[in-house]
Design goal:
Distance between the termini: 61 Å
Largest sheet: 5 strands, antiparallel
Low-confidence stretches: 1-26, 536-566, 645-653
Mean pLDDT: 83
Number of strands: 35
Number of helices: 14
Radius of gyration: 31 Å
Strand content: 25-35%
Structural class: alpha+beta
Helix content: 10-25%
Amino acid sequence: MINTNLKTLSFLFILFTTSLAIKAQDEYLDIFYYDAIDEFEAENYQKAIELFEEEIEIYPACKECYLYLGLAYMNSNTKTEQAKTVLEKGISLLSKDDEQNDLYKDMYMAYAKTLQVLLQTDKAKEVYQLLKQKFPNDRFTFIEEIEEEIRVCDNSSIFLENPIKLSITNLGEKINSSCDDHNPLINIVDDKLYFTSRRPNKKTTKLKDGQNPEKIYTASKEDGKWKQSHALNIFFKVQDHESILSLSADGKELFILHNDEDIKNIYHSVLVNNVWQKPVKLPKPINSQANETHASLSPDKSTLFFTSDREGGYGGKDIYMIKKDEHGNWGEARNLGPQVNTPFDEETAMLHPDGNTLYFASEGHNGMGQLDVFYTQMNPDSTWTSPSNMGYPINTPEDDFFFLPTIDKNKAYYASTHFSGNMGGSDLYKIEFDKTLERELAVIEGVVEDKQSLTNGSVRIMVTRKKDNVLVGDYRPDQKDGKYTLFLKTGEQYYITETSVNKDEKRSYLDINKDLAFNNNKKIVPFGKIRLEPPMIPLTVKDEIKNHTDNIIKGLNDMTQKARVDSAYYTIQVLALKRKPTWAYLYLKGLNQKELQIFKGADGFTRYVYGAFKGKEFTAKKRNELVETGKYKDSFIRPLKDFTEDIFNHSKQ
């Protein structure tokens, strides 16, 4: 429930200089005044507004009532103009004596913040300058806060003068309600929507804040239009908040936020036979004794980005990343560092299907105030570029953080209170950018053939870019059906290696031309339709092992000629090494070196193969002979053509 952590799209700046411990004069103190304060502190702003309005009607000189009422209007999201009017009235009641107390500062700070929300940044800056001049020797934290708000006003002025061109469409009454609707999540093909809502539910009752608990809703699209949304499921107790955080790129995994004894934890649910299973709490070191408030899975399912306020960060909530090891277990959590994280809060990190662009919200960087949406991209060395602000009107001086980009980046889904057509609270919108971006990703769906190998979760689909031998994906297939979805940049060639602990690897080759780019007409491409035979590259013999391998490669021409004549030839792979193979000759000692070949694969492995035998049955007998020597138990049979395509190409160059 992001909004119980970030307090919806509201301003909980209670308060900049005090906790509003100021008490009204005795003549104003009555049960209704304290009832109003109780409702305000319970975040039941609508009820607080009613009570403070009654109090002001009875005691029109109650200055504190105007401050509370103004803040309650602000926190109700859509009544900022009323807040401005109320605060101006309260300021008019301030006396000369009030300039020496905190009520004066609180009233003006609230007023300046209201002007910022109304996009009157120049006027807001004037108020902040006034406070800075009025209290030059005040507490350092107060002056620091003032200077930060002035900086934010300057940022806002720049963004307001240079708005982003886009079109905004409310998703309509079948999706949105009069209550807060947020956290929109869309599947790849854009026909399934999930979101969180505080709308009334037959099974729930209102909480202390006057709203219903957060629950997860879903809707489907038919003929290009959204059908009526409905509750997905109630996973936890009826009155508990449960908020959706993110959806995996293949649409089969959900991440959910839940309060566990006042600690926020991340849970995980999987889709089995079209039914979402009971969520399971993520293990350490993802969840901890601190609050974990958001999670997003990389498209290859090997890396999780999550937010936490655990000790050792840069301040507030930070974004962390954690990777799976070769056995499918989560490793150590790593802070993304000061390039992304700031002394303020960072939230809602969402990795784009390109596996390289991270969208997130931050109170730091060059924002317009409160939380703004930014994006950053991963460098080749796994560092991050300087975050870029998404600009106005996506960002405003309010909290802005429910931003979900789609696969082509031309379109996004967003939750907001400040767009036209609002139906109450925050609504879900579709955003389409005017700038045309080239579609650059292809979506490829494959399946692991050997289902038995899925049981321990160690199967991996390694994707290596051919031109520079860089690993660009470490995909984890579904452990139930073995399916996986690749997101690959077009215009590139890739080696696809299916591997697992103590299992033989299978290798394929994909040439992703631009015609395979994902769009509304050409959707997901079956892996089998574009799979090519994997080319191999003959090893360039290193000087340090040349003396031991000269004899090994003498039979190369004879073997390749045999393979040309008859494609039914097989060979035996006896060894594969990742690091420098300086000791390989010792391991291979005793074999007929004329029958050995060495190949350097684009995945970084050096492979040693033995013989060129016609027929798989005869090759199996030869392998048994090798095993009987007491060595080479891990050897296995491969078609010789796996190793010949690039040899032929090489000989032609």
